[in-house]
């Protein structure tokens, strides 16, 4: 025992943690935005496509879901540049990885959401003379988004936590900041206490805000 | 290139064995701890319920990587010296336990209240109610998500490579360090993880279908 808590060094380097937290949020927001695009496109394509396309989309989803995120992060950052001739920063690489990762989870979310839209709504859309495109944009997608909103917020929260894996390729997000302070000051317990609190506070604040949004949309209907 | 990979295969197999061993330990330990704490959460007195709730919400609210580093670097600072292997197993087990608690709460919560009341009415003790009435029914709801969660344990175990434990992930990185064949080895690693986890998720789906006759 005999370990005395001393937070002074943590506060002195707090900019590393604060900047890290902001970067974590940024990574999560950008990745889920791209992930939503991927998920929407593939889900809409999936429900209207033939067998071959469905197999390919399902293969993408199953591959991503069954492989550790850290391996995907390494594969895109260290592996991919050895076979294709593009250079990118660690941060870009991580955003690409996390987007593809969240895209795979969101295809599933949106696909089941699309299938949960009541048949009667689509028939009603057809009855009032909407084109297939109008039925998709004005009937199916809005209803589907409302259904999938809770799953969407859960995905965002888990992505926010997943951004910690970016530290393995030295993206200076919150976990990286924690390790930096850990290795430079040895105030191990303090830094992880502070970082734990930061993840918890941010995560639950986000959860609270997202639940408000969900309630707002449920009330509208 | 293929020759180098073939040469590395026995080494990768050792790493794979460590991955499976870590996953197995985590899954078994968290099952015991999670079921006990889950019962505490559902049936325990208020202070115990709060303690379990706080434990579960805290653990599930932080990244698993932070938990691993916290346990690995933090425990020695307070005088507890664990080998890196056991520190990693402890951290992953804490994380998985929180999930098991929630699976159990969900499964037990889905059993209609009348079942418990009927069991009470015929004079069964608390233990008998759990063993003969609640658990046999809750089991069918617990099993599919739990098996699905085993894939999370296998995937999560890849993070122990960061503590220098030579699991499959670390073995792959070491082979790449020697051969510079990054892409083929990462793909090989992905295929191995995929094979294990996909088999588990298929099993989970099959069980779900098998138990789908149960109605609310």
Q: Mean pLDDT of chain A, as a whole number?
A: 91
Helix content of chain B: over 70%
Number of domains of chain A: 1
Q: What is the H/E order of chain B?
A: HHHHHHHH
Structural class of the secondary structure composition of chain A?
Answer: mainly alpha
| C-alpha Rg of chain A (nearest Å) | 21 Å
Order of helices and strands of chain A: HHHHHHHHH
Largest interface: A-B, 40 and 40 residues
In percent terms, what proportion of residues of chain A is strand? under 5%
CATH homologous superfamily heading of chain A: MetI-like
The average pLDDT of chain B is 91
Compute the separation of the termini of chain B in Å.
57 Å
- Going by CATH, the architecture of chain A would be Orthogonal Bundle
Report on the structure:
The complex is a heterodimer of chains A (221) and B (216). The model of chain A has no long low-confidence stretch (mean pLDDT 91). Chain A starts with 7 loop residues before the first helix and ends with a helix. In chain A, helix 4 crosses helix 5 (90-116), helix 5 (90-116) packs across helix 7 and helix 8 packs antiparallel against helix 9 (188-219). Chain A is built from 9 helices and no strands. Chain A has helices at 8-12, 14-48, 51-65, 69-79, 90-116, 119-127, 132-162, 174-185, 188-219. By secondary structure, chain A is an all-alpha fold. The termini of chain B are far apart. Chain B is built from 8 helices and no strands. Chain B: Its main location: membrane. Chain B: InterPro entries: AA_ABC_transptr_permease_3TM (IPR010065), ArtM/GltK/GlnP/TcyL/YhdX-like (IPR043429), MetI-like (IPR000515), MetI-like_sf (IPR035906).
